[in-house]
Structure formats: C-alpha cells, structure tokens
From TrEMBL, chains A, B:
Residues 20-111 form the Chorismate mutase domain. InterPro entries: Chorismate_II_sf, Chorismate_mutase-related, CM_dom_sf, CM_II_prokaryot. This is Chorismate mutase. One of its GO terms (biological process) is chorismate metabolic process. Keywords: Isomerase. It comes from Bombiscardovia coagulans.
Length: 112, 112
C-alpha cells in the first residue's frame, strides 16, 4: 500500500497521468478480485454438491434438515478463523447465513 | 451417491447400525464442508484486503465508491461460471450482493 502511494506521488505532477495510474492499478487489482471470485464460486459448487448429498442421507435416515448445534459450532469456528485471517467476523457470519439458509432450503426440498 | 445407497442398504438389516452409518457418512461430508469453508474464508480475507486497497486508490483519485458497470459485468461473469460449474446462479448473485455491499460500505468509510 505504501508502494501505491509512492507510485501516485511520482505521477501526480500530471493530473491526467495520475488518474490513469490510479485506474491502471485498480484494473490490476480487479483482476485479482475476479480470480478470487472464480475460486470461491468453484468451491461453492463443490460445497453445495456435498450438502445435497448430506440432504439425501438425512432424508434417508429420517434426520431433520436443520442442526442448530452444528450451525453454532460452524459459526464459532468461522469467526475464530476470520479473526486469525484479519477478516471482520461479521462477514463470515453473513457468509454462513447465506450458505446455511440455501443448504437447508435444499435439504427440505430433497426431503419432500 | 449410488455408492452411499449401496452402503446403507447393506447395513439396513440392523436399524441402529444403519442410523450410525448415515451419521458416520454425514460426519465425513461435514469435514469436507469445513475444509471448503476454511478455504473460502481465507479467500474472503484476501478479497477484502484487495478491495480495501481499491477503496484507498479510489479515494485518492476522487473516484466514486460504486461502479455499477463493473458490478453488472461481475454478476454476468459469475452467473456464467456458476452455470458451467453446475451451481444455481441465484447463489452467486447472493454471494456477489454480500461481498459488493460490504466492499462499498468499506470504500465509503475509507473515503471519509
């Protein structure tokens, strides 16, 4: 980040060049973001394939779609991991809420 | 999945053992889910570190925090990738809504 500041200060003599330099840096960072999103979508595809199998097993075994103990445990683990990785734990709670609600909907659908 | 069906049919003679077999399979699948979540949380930590840098660059350049064209393009790419990976595109839309709203909040915070 201090590297970026140095870059822009060197080019700020010409406002147009400076703006282009910001845009070029943002463009490059966006490519990294897109790469991360691609990895995450592939992981989500694997995750829901697995949770669908869990849903089928639960339906066969007559287990309920929801498991609150498991969910509390997951959230606690994810919050701890987030803190370790320097990520706002609120973000992983929102991530978990998303994947858990979709997984449970699909489990309920599979059970019917 | 047909493998799981075969497994459970072999053990269904004893209802207790069959239930344990389901539970054991679910337990194993949950470990895979936890592994995927760990990878995703690490990727999210990297993603928000990068979007924070983008937010700083935008603030320095005087660019607005939001970029609707970029967002539409991202959603279209992620939907296409989801379809290719056999994932419900609605899930990636929800994923994108989550990360984009958090990133924009943080950009607005950085700009102030």
């Amino acid at each position: 980040m201090s590297e970026h500041e140095t870059d822009t200060r060197e080019t700020v003599v010409d406002k147009y060049t400076a703006t282009n330099s910001f845009a070029a840096q943002i463009q490059q960072l966006r490519q990294s973001i897109d790469g991360i999103d691609t990895e995450i979508v592939k992981l989500l595809a694997r995750r829901f394939a697995i949770t669908d199998t869990v849903g089928q097993l639960k339906a066969q075994a007559g287990f309920a779609p929801a498991d609150p103990d498991r969910e509390h445990q997951q959230v606690a683990q994810l919050r701890a991991l987030a803190e370790q990785e320097g990520l706002d734990p609120m973000i992983v709670e929102q991530y978990h809420a998303l994947v858990a609600s979709v997984a449970k909907e699909r489990h309920a659908h599979i059970a019917h």
